[in-house]
TrEMBL record:
This is MAIP1 protein. One of its GO terms (cellular component) is mitochondrial inner membrane. One of its GO terms (molecular function) is ribosome binding. It comes from Anhinga rufa (African darter). One of its GO terms (biological process) is protein insertion into mitochondrial inner membrane from matrix. Gene3D superfamilies: 3.10.450.240. It comes from the Eukaryota. PANTHER family: M-AAA PROTEASE-INTERACTING PROTEIN 1, MITOCHONDRIAL.
Amino acid sequence: TSPLAWLRTRFYYLLIRLYFDQEFSVEEFTRGAKQAFSMVSKLLSQCKLDLLEELVSAEVLQVLKEKISLLPDNHRDALAADTDAIMYTTEGDVRIYYDDDGMKFVSILMRFWYLNGANLPDEVPGETKVFQIVFGDESTKEKRHLLTANYEFQREFTEGAKPDWTITRIEHPKLLE
């Protein structure tokens, strides 16, 4: 992350704490975002989209229903990310905005890099084969791929709104297109 992007993000986090939620914590949000990413990605890979209704916006859920049914099994398997397999997480963008009715929103885009052992072809563009792990002897090799995903979390901060974060964008480049 560039120093300017890092400063901009920290400034927005300060604004969130000052004007919307005095108890907002970057660390706590990131921890919760990782858990949500892991749970949602596993449900996606298992095609259990009905369990996502409380976590994902209706618009995103509709798009996912169309895309998931068309995916080959190995791509669906590659969507799943165990919490322990998340190698790196960073904020992509933080936005604070008001709509025409005066409703207040905060949106945080999170980027995840995770290891997955799905049986993907070696020529899948947009991902990087990191290494092969050898357990025991040479005959037992397990390939792992480093994959990326972008999830955008949104929360309404209008007085009286539920204090829940909703996922408003899900991107698994080259897997979920």
